[in-house]
Amino acid sequence: MKFLLVFDFDHTIVDENSDTWIVKCAPKNKLPNGLRNSYRPGHWTEYMGRVFVYLGDNGVKEDEMKRTMTTIPFTAGMVDLLCFIGRNKEFFDCIIVSDSNTVFIDWILKAADLHTVFDEVFTNPAAFSSTGYLTVQNFHAHHCAKCPKNLCKRKVLKEFLGKQLERGVSYTQIVYIGDGGNDLCPVMFLKKDDIAMPRQGYTLEKKISHLAQDLCPVECSVLVWSSATEIMSYLKVLIKE
User: Fold this and answer.
1) For 92-102, what is each residue's pLDDT tens digit?
2) Least buried of 43, 100, 143, 154, by fewest C-beta within 10 Å?
3) Quick one: which residues bind substrate (predicted)?
4) For the residues of 159-221, what is the DSSP string, one character each?
């Protein structure tokens, strides 16, 4: 009997958006208006690519970025929750599906010694170039009209479950923990025995409640949280601790 925990990263594991947190490295902690206004909906990864070029052009190096990123605060109760999951890995497989990038997530989790809690991290691949600039790429290509161009979280989840089945692993329940609009697509893929945990007051919770008002609610159960302590209480009931 195993449970799959699927976490978003920004505004879920950490209490901020890691991509906007990096702006603290920019001159005067802000981006020029032209760059800020260059974002087009659904094309966030390309926009962040331009942000990283701007930081590189202004002499921001890897070690400064790393120092800045590892000061990002975790969401209330999250460190305790992740330590609890780490102690109970015989019950839980745990993955991250995020629109952040591999470098940021790796830095943040390793600095807090939480990286071993997660079996896999699915996010946009990033690396430093030979000239010391951070570069980021789209995670994959997909045909989902609802999701940003670089990442459909439903596709990631479906493919992960398919690979696990090939290995003989199936899950009693999937628990999906997130906050954003791009978490709705995978939540709508969940079945009635699964549970979606949207963060209180954020876009995912609002979108799920709009669906319910329109009489086409999601199939899974929904449990809203504001502190990760509430998530931990639910998981303790699951494993009857």
Assistant:
1) 999 999 999 99
2) 143
3) 19, 99
4) HHHHHHHHTT---SEEEEEE-SGGGHHHHTT--TTSEEEEBTTSHHHHHHHHHHHTT---SSE
Average pLDDT, the chain: 95
Confidence label for 130 from pLDDT (cuts 50, 70 and 90): very high
In the residue annotation, 63 being an active-site residue is answered as: no
Structure confidence at residue 241 (pLDDT): 66
On whether both 115 and 158 belong to a single domain, the answer is: yes
| Residues spanned by the domain of 44 | 19-70
Annotated binding-site residues read 8, 10, 19, 99, 179
CATH number at residue 150: 3.40.50.1000
26/117 same-domain check: no
The reported pLDDT for the residue numbered 84 is 98
Q: What domain count does the chain have?
A: 2
Burial class (CB in 10 A: 0-12, 13-18, 19+), 24: middle
Output the known binding site for Mg(2+): 8, 10, 179
Feature table: binding site for substrate:
19, 99
On the question of pLDDT at 158 being above 90, the answer is yes
For residue 8, give the nearest of 151, 214, 128 by alpha carbon: 151
User: Model-level pTM?
Assistant: 0.95
Catalytic annotation present for 10: yes
